[in-house]
Write a structure and sequence with these properties.
heterodimer, A: 547 residues, alpha/beta, Rossmann fold, 3 domains, six-stranded mixed sheet, 20 helices, elongated, disordered N terminus, B: 342 residues, mainly alpha, two-stranded antiparallel sheet, 13 helices, 4 strands
């Protein structure tokens, strides 16, 4: 293992071929083009960041490199040699090691057993185990990768489990190490340790590909960075020559500018007041770190941010279905009455009855049952409403009539309520969800990614409906990763990063550049007009040093 | 072994010792019978252990044993050779294993449904073919001589017969069993060694816990699971052959009588470990032997009716399955077909 590193002699000279090179890789899953004509070259002995939002196609690309998927087109070169990676075994032989986001460890095996799995030296375990023990000791000393080889994996902390994954790759003589969102489950201290390990590996001549959606990590440890957006590689730059602001813009992208016809907001009484909302997930990772929000009747509060910074958790908690095993604390009031955040009264049905509508982020999972008909989907959540029931039987005719009318008003095409949700286009599926939620006239409407995967015509229509609901004096919380959408619809914009609200801006008085910086977690301490506009009684309980 | 398990083991063993002190001859007869009765359970239990440790749940142990008993008895009768019968039993059981593998590994079907189907298939097919071939209402003709596995007298068994303690145990219990009983008992240390000391065992256990870890290590999940299912088929085949050509002399309709399910209960009781499986199946064998020996057990105060005695193994099964033995955690990927995640 050391000899391999020694031969490489640390950083490469310019003539050496790239450690790994991709040429024109494309991959589609059905109609979804996950990767489109991706080209990438990673020099030996560097840390290369690949950044992009969730769903940008990063993980698909890495799975292709590890032989999980066959690309539809394109070529992979390792060390200048074209190879065809048909399965994990080929990838391992080519010196590619992978640390997956979800670890591939056998929980009730010891560290040693996990390490030798698949690369045992013979039919009997004993010699392999003792050899691995020796190699492990050596690797631990070399790269600060200390783990007790005889400990059972399920007793290890997440950070240590990740070290086992890295050791697994190194034990398989990996020269190229791919890490998929490695810090998602780590505490900051563990993440710092990981970065030290990665720098050590690079200095020994290993090549590291780091996939992440966190700009801070990219800036901190990568030499080069490539940005992916919607399945395409939109840029590859030297990290030293770029800025978080530029990267954020590249990630989110600039689309055709949207314009929405709307009058200035006339905010009235507060509808939603959130104070110090905190959420720790089942793995002990803090997803929300003291969120404070106010939304008044008749205004749209937009939440901008790179996805994965806590927006999903915020919507789920407000929608009444926090993640399983999550600990939620804080104070949330709806129309002046406290909203339960756990236990009794914290369920999605009760939230609807309390007047909270919810257009969820993923309509195919949370918003609709894809194999059920449109009329059934329109009734969901309200299937026990009196007008849909006759005694204890459902009044399906009434539901169908209601669904047909809603489909009429929201221009859902085709206008056939007997069709399964799956058979509508993305835009029309979303209209079904929007119709169901808006027509119930909620006091507060939660909206997640209202126009993701929706055609331009439907986007315009959905935007109009949202503004109309606002003008009817309702409060709206809009979460979107599309900055243009946020700017076009919102009356105020709050930026979320790493479970915190980084600041609030008024759409007319900010720039995408300023928001991009906030989305990257960078703020200046001076007060802005929007923040100064927050009523004084709410500022005192803001946590210290939140900048 | 945890405290609870050790406690149960001590209680059962002391009952055996007290029994032997109170009535030596009866105890020898009873425990000898228990050893014979537990043999098919042990083989089936180990069969299930291989399959379930690899992540393929198998409630078709019963059906596979039944099919093996039938093919073994038929071939042993037709050829007059117990050994050919054994081979046929293994073949019959393996063919059902293959169906289970196809359904649950290749086609990623529901393993419980596939297992239920195999049980029905075996139950119907054995009687149908049996009636058609022999016309005895689903039975096969009685086996005699070389058509059955005969007891083997171990070396020195006669010489040691009169030595106190050692004599009755060695000559009376250990010696004088058929070869398949020895095979079953030998399978316990072999299984332990294979599972925990070999590369194959490591991969087998890994594929039942987290198949993705095996897949990303570049090892075929499908091949491993098929191998495990095949081993399960072979062991069930031996178990069935023993039922028809060792324990009895021919095949009788539904002769497995729920032994496949009792073996499953024993497997849960043993928490998917081979040595504990030996112990668990001994307990079931002992209960069955006692019920046979004392149809109406007179405890002095009350006479336990025979129906209750005969129901004992099944009652124990229910108790075990209801979770009275502590938490039994099955292999984590058990019951789930492996699909690569996107």
């Amino acid at each position: 293992m050391t000899t391999a590193s020694d031969m490489l002699g640390g950083r490469s000279d310019t003539a050496a071929p790239a450690a790994i090179e991709l040429r024109g890789i494309s991959k589609a899953f059905g109609a979804v083009q996950a990767n489109r004509d991706i080209s990438l070259s990673v020099p030996r002995g560097t840390i290369h960041g690949i950044i992009g939002e969730n769903g940008a196609g990063k993980s698909t690309l890495m799975s292709i490199l590890y032989g999980f998927y066959k690309p539809d087109a394109g070529q992979i070169l390792v060390g200048g040699q074209p190879i065809s990676i048909s399965d994990s075994q080929t990838a391992i032989r080519a010196g590619i090691g992978m640390v997956f986001q979800h670890f591939k460890l056998v929980q009730n095996f010891t560290v040693l057993e996990n390490i030798i799995l698949g690369v045992e030296d013979g039919a009997l375990l004993r010699p392999s185990l003792s050899k691995a023990r020796g190699v492990l000791k050596q690797l631990a000393a070399e790269y600060q990768l200390n783990v007790d080889p005889d400990e059972v994996v399920e007793n290890l902390s997440v950070g240590h489990q990740q070290r086992v994954e890295i050791l697994k790759a190194l034990y398989r003589q990996a020269d190229i190490l791919i890490l998929d969102e490695p810090t998602g489950v780590l505490t900051p201290a563990e993440a710092d340790h990981l970065f030290r390990i990665l720098k050590g590996l690079r200095d020994e001549g290993k090549t590291i590909i780091l996939i992440t959606h966190k700009l801070r990590e990219i800036m901190e440890i990568t030499d080069n960075v490539s940005v992916m957006r919607r399945g395409e590689m939109v840029a590859s730059v030297r990290t030293a020559e770029t800025s978080p602001e530029q990267l954020a813009e590249l990630m989110v992208g600039r689309k055709v500018l949207l314009s929405v016809d709307k009058q200035p907001a006339r905010p009235q009484a507060p509808v939603l007041e959130v104070r110090g909302l905190t959420m720790v997930d089942i793995d002990g990772v803090e997803r929300l770190r003291g969120i404070d929000l106010d939304i008044r009747a008749g205004e749209i509060l937009g939440i901008a941010g790179v996805s994965g910074n806590g927006q999903t958790q915020l919507l789920e908690i407000l929608g009444g279905y926090p993640e399983k095993g999550a600990k939620v604390s804080g104070d949330v009031q709806l129309n002046g009455a406290p909203l339960p955040l756990s236990g009794r009264g914290c369920d999605a049905g009760q939230r609807r009855r309390d007047g909270v509508g919810h257009i969820p982020e993923d309509r195919q999972v949370e918003g609709l049952i894809m194999d059920f008909t449109a009329w059934e989907n329109v009734a969901f959540g309200w299937h026990d409403a009196p007008e849909f029931n006759k005694g204890w039987l459902m009044d399906n005719d009434a539901i169908r009539r209601d669904a047909q009318a809603k489909m009429e008003r929201f221009d859902v095409r085709p206008r056939d309520c007997h069709l399964a949700a799956r058979n509508f286009s993305g835009g029309n599926q979303q209209k079904i969800v929007v119709a169901r939620e808006i027509e119930r006239n909620p006091d507060l409407l939660l909206i997640g990614q209202p126009t993701r995967g929706v055609d331009i015509g439907a986007i315009e229509f959905i935007h109009k409906q949202i503004v109309a609901l606002r003008d009817a004096g309702k409060a709206i919380l809009l979460v979107s990763v599309e900055l243009d959408e946020i700017l076009a619809l919102s009356d105020r914009v709050a930026v979320m990063f790493d479970g915190r609200i980084m600041g609030e801006r008024l759409p007319g008085q900010t720039t995408t550049g300023e928001l991009g910086l906030l989305m990257a977690g960078i703020t200046d301490t001076q007060n802005t007009p929007a923040e100064a506009g927050i009523p004084p009684e709410t500022t005192h309980d803001m946590p210290e040093g939140r900048a | 072994m945890n405290i609870r398990e050790s406690l149960i083991a001590i209680i059962v063993l002391s009952i055996c010792v007290i029994w032997a002190l109170a009535d030596g001859a009866a105890a020898q007869q009873g425990i000898g019978s228990a050893l014979r009765l537990m043999t098919p359970l042990l083989l089936a239990c180990l069969a299930g252990l291989y399959s379930e440790r690899a992540g393929v749940f198998d409630i078709g142990l019963e059906g596979k044993m039944l099919m093996a008993a039938f093919t073994a008895a038929s071939v042993a009768y037709l050829t007059g050779s117990a050994w050919l019968g054994l081979a046929a039993g293994i073949a019959g059981s393996l063919s059902l294993s293959l169906i289970h593998g196809l359904a649950s590994i290749t086609f990623m079907g529901n393993q419980l449904i596939s297992g239920v189907a195999i049980n029905f298939l075996a139950s119907g097919l054995t009687v149908l073919i049996g009636q058609n071939a022999f016309g005895l209402g689903g039975r096969t003709p009685s086996l005699t001589g070389a058509g059955r596995f005969q007891p083997i007298t171990l070396p020195l068994a006669d010489a040691l017969r009169d030595v106190p303690v050692l004599g009755p145990i060695y000559s009376g219990l250990i010696s004088g069993q058929t070869i398949l009983v020895y095979v079953a008992f030998a399978m316990v240390p072999i299984t332990w060694w294979v599972l925990f000391r070999t590369r194959f065992g490591l991969r087998l256990r890994a594929v039942g816990e987290n198949p993705a870890s095996v897949d990303t290590a570049g090892v075929s999940v499908t091949r491993l699971r098929y191998t495990a299912v095949a081993i399960c088929g072979i062991l069930c085949g031996i178990a069935g052959a023993y039922l028809a050509t060792g324990l009895s002399a021919g095949f009788v309709k539904e002769m497995t009588a729920g032994r496949g399910f009792i073996a499953l209960a024993a497997l849960i009781f043993a928490k998917w470990r081979p040595w504990q499986a030996l112990f668990a199946t001994f307990l079931f064998g002992l209960l069955e032997a006692i019920a046979n020996l004392y149809p109406n057990l007179d405890l002095g105060i009350v006479v336990v009716p025979s129906m209750f005695m005969n129901a004992l193994p099944y009652i124990l099964t229910v108790v075990i399955l209801a979770g009275f033995v502590g938490r039994a955690i099955p292999p984590r990927a058990g019951g789930e077909p492996y699909v690569k995640e996107r």
